[in-house]
Structure prediction request, 498 residues.
Amino acid sequence: MWTGDFLYLLTNLMQKDFRIRYRNMSLGVFWSLLNPLIMMGVLTFIFTRISVSQAIPHFSVYVLCGLVPFNFFTTALISGTTSLVENAPLIKKLPVPRVIIPIAAVLSSCQQLLIQIGLLVAFVLAFRLGVNRYWAWLPLLWLMEVIFVCGLSLITSALNVYIRDTRYVVESFNLVLFWLVPIFYSFSSIRPAYVPIYHWNPVAALVVASRNILLDAQAPQGQILRNLALSSTFMLVVGLLVFGRLKARFYDHL
Amino acid sequence: MAVIDFEHVSKTFARHRGQMLLRSRLTSMFRDRGISRFQALKDVSFRVEAGTSVAIVGPNGAGKSTLLGLIAQLAQPDEGRVVVNGRVAALLELGSGFHPDLTGAENVRLNAALMGLNRKQTAQAFDAIVEFSGIGDFIHEPLRAYSSGMIVRLAFAVAAHADADILLIDEVLVVGDQAFQAKCQQRLQEFRRQGKTLICVSHAVPLVQSLCDEAIWLEKGSVVEVGPSSKVIPAYVDQSTAPA
Prediction:
């Protein structure tokens, strides 16, 4: 039995990821900012200069509110999914609790999330949208997304050990998700028949809620909060159950 | 008290373990013949009492590493029962938790946490680990600059300070130089005097014979003989060097 300090190991694994990531990048943090900036620039240019069908004020901030949750979701999910296979030597040689590997991978991606949130806040302030008391909701909203991704990664990482194609399925899914999250179109422009899909999509819920707070200075809708809390708790519980079932044979399949 | 108890343990692995792809999963679903399995361990039973040191000997592919994997509870048996009482520290591969981009010191801290030490225990053991490894100032260099001998010294130093009840070592000690091997042996003897249990796999017969009082001889997944190392190891050596 491994009887060590779970949290201490978790912080050590996260530190390891940070160190390795930034030791191999001369420009460090800059790269974490470049991707959302480029996407924001391109989408803003297209939808405010080339194809002007909907007039959304502060469009660049609007897009960034969509990109930051989406970017975190995709990068965290991919690194979570591949974490067990990439750490095969650890799984095969050291009796550490397996569940810590995908969790550490997802939490390591939070550092990039923090940098991108910093960028978002900088844009909000630069556009003179101001701070309001509903900002207090933001940490809770992000936390629920992190929990959701942890739960989902527990499932996909375990499946990826048994079927290595899982990773490519996840990548394709992320591609589809880009269009299923209201990143560059407005939630109110969606036909009522499709609204339920968005209601239960936690990434979409987070995007809508952060726009309410940052752009409209409104409290997030109670229904969105409830759905987010339910879906993230549900995903974490299911993730832990599935992972618990599948972990027994990791050794045989790695 | 038995710290390790194996009762009729068998372990099989699917063949073609590399093909973990959707295509091979689907084709095996539609074909009658199941995946052929390979028997790594067959009906293995033995007990290890606290404070003994056990050598596991046998030719390549005899199931020695699988046996250690089961003791470390990295894998689960297909049949039979494995009971392990106590904290296990495993040194199964040269620096398995090490990363080449981290410095020696960073790797020591990470590995100590992987072995189950908390922040305080790591801080307490850190100097002793560095001292024991004999790495010196190199401890602040990235691991990619280390020789394999230096890596094994560091890995052994961490495992030796992991404060475990059972230490598993798989064929890694032979990498160090003579002086370091002597130091390791001394440490392992000390470890035994504290009433801890040592399980080691090695092809370096003189080393394991001097270190271990009992031995398990495996051949093609089955136990050939279990007993005092002074009896089992010479029998194994005689058999394996005899002309077929």
Remarks:
- The two ends of chain A are 21 Å apart (CA to CA).
